[in-house]
Specification:
Layout (H helix, E strand, L loop, with lengths): L1 E2 L2 E2 L7 H19 L4 H25 L3 H19 L2 H22 L13 H31 L11 H4 L9 H8 L11 H8 L1 H32 L6 H8 L1 H4 L2 H14 L6 H24 L4 H9 L4 H30 L2 H6 L7 H11 L4 H30 L6
Antiparallel strand pairs: 1-2
Helix pairs in contact: 1-2, 1-4, 2-4, 3-4, 5-18, 7-18, 9-13, 9-15, 9-17, 13-15, 14-15, 15-18
Amino acid sequence: MSTGKYRYIPPQPPLWFSMAVPAGIAAIVGLLSAQGNTALMLPGMAVGAIIAAVISAVLITLNLTRFKAGVIFAALMVAFGTVYSSVPFGIMIGLVGYVLGRMSIWLNAGDYRLALPPYASSREVLNFYGFRVICGGIFIFLITPILILIPLSFNQEPYFSFTEGMLALDPAAYSLRWYKDILYNGMVAPQAIEGWWEDMWANSQWVRSIKNSLFIGFFATIISTALGTLAAIGLSRSEMPYKRAVMALLISPMVVPLVITASGLFYFFSYIGLAKTYTGIILSHAVLGTPFVIITVTATLSGFDRSLTRSAANLGAGPVTTFFKIQMPLILPGVISGGLFAFITSFDEVVVVLQMADVKQRTIPRQMFSGIREQISPTILAVATILVILSIFLLTTVELLRRRSERMRGISPS
């Protein structure tokens, strides 16, 4: 932090402080390394804390750079972890050691105060970093179950747990067999089948489910996007009567428990003869996806300049021309974002499909639900990994569109 031509130099904390923080983190790692074994918890915490404190003190005394300190700390922890347990464990705590080595130098230099004003008290510094530690812990808690699925989906054995070979990083313990099972569904090798490509797409339950999910999600997204955009434009007009009541009614599928919504849709579509049909499922998913489009487009319209549409009307443009030439290009990022949310909602939905779908209309979530109940197979993990990657791609696209929309409205992206 600089004030005029003078650079703020934070005070250097005592050595015990720069040792205590890495030691505390290492104690938590030691506790987790015990894997629930109560006899190893306290020794693991004590050993981790002592090792981290000693190494931190040595690195600080040598006055190394952050990078060198991180590399040395990581190398020592890799060696210790490999001798104590295994190579994977050594690599894991080596990554922790790299962070702790850099942290030791960072703390000792007092650089942790550079993100705060010079007059910040110790309590304010603690609150500042404590809040970020809590947020990071919540993020790790939420993301860890998803990350565990990915390596498990490459398991050679039909187990839902890490085998000894996987923990030892044995290449023979990893396989793509469950990803192949998605395509071939336990059939013989496709090269031995005449017309295997057509047979695969016709017979594999998983591939059929993928086709159904894409087909239903595509048309449900189109309907949701069209209806939600029109509804958002109408709700954004100042002369719209009963705006709050209409808005609450339109987004009610997000609030009402999904089981109740699914039951109501099933009885309604059964009455008109659309239950157990693609049309009924598409319309049901459109009902669930439309609220997301309404909320997203409404948020985009909140920064829309109404003088543009009035100017277009003064120049003789009709409502349709004004919408497609003026309004739609400016709100397009919000419309696409809402459509992506609607597609994710349809692609991930299972409760409505359980009631509305027949065997022919099974989607991926419905097939996964059946697989869990009827035949436990790691193929489910492979499908889940694919869905996670797809979700990350779609959410990244939504974030890029949100930033583009903010730039077009003159807002600095956050």
